[in-house]
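Box 3.1 A note on notation
Throughout this textbook, protein chains are presented in two layers. The first layer is the amino acid sequence; the second is a token string describing backbone geometry. Keep the layers aligned when reading.
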Amino acid sequence: MTLVPVTYKGGIYQHDVIIDLIEDLGGYIVQKHIIAAEVVLQCFIPHDDIELIRRISKPLFGEVTDSPLVGTEIAVVSMSLEIHHLPHPSCDFAEYARRIGAKTNMVSPARGPGKRISQLSDEERDVINEHDVAVLAFGNFESCIEYKWPALRRGIEVPIIVMGGPDTETLKRIIHPAAEGYVGNVGRFMRRGKTEEEIGILDEIVAEVTRVVEKKREEIAKDPLSVSPARLMDLIRENVPAIHDVTSPTPLTVQMEGLRVKLPYDTFAGALRKIEIEDGITIADVAEIVPSRMRDYILVKILPFSETNTVV
């Protein structure tokens, strides 16, 4: 069964019918937002059942749309959060991507600004590597980007999308070694994006990130994960009551190859390892549970089939 990421938007009236249907079909609700009289469900549903859900949603005035960034966590790396670097493009993209299903985190290097001192610390690099992809937001100057790139790129293992003031072809020419994606004409500007042209640029960034994410999904499919991250999310919700008391956004953040659990590692890591998935197989059998470099969270890294010979 192939699960695909989608977003359901509709009225709050009888939205539980859609939730029950998704769960009965073997799908998973990743996030649920209630805004006034509207409900937004970001979820994974079986590919063969999309039309069924659309048909049942229609009388409820609901809409089902493809959302390829659902179930991803993206690091948006701005060179600085100070007024000098005006991180408006970074904030615009981070907010825009959240609306279509991604979980975004802003990361700002302590020594991002400045040509000669620009670098990442080990902790900053580790935090970025805990995400599915990284979007590096550079400034306007071609020479500055070319000089900074080797130092900032070093040690980052996740796919990188570069955005900056020069056009896309220029970015491709000056970036060595190559990044996985490029979006040009997105430099520093002193306001939030509001015009049709500026929103169009955000769509270009989303399209490039989506392309890179889909390519990564294809690589994962060649050696599938031992268990779906969304299934682990449901199991943790059922077996760890403390997760319901977490006030942080998305206490369980689904990633492409695991998930971030926003509970203290020392207190809850042992309990997570013992959770049974199926037929005596526990989370510890199919995943690594390690401390996150982001606060005191827990990172669950699901192992591929080639390492466990198990798919549950």
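The chain has eleven helices and 15 strands. The mean pLDDT is 90.
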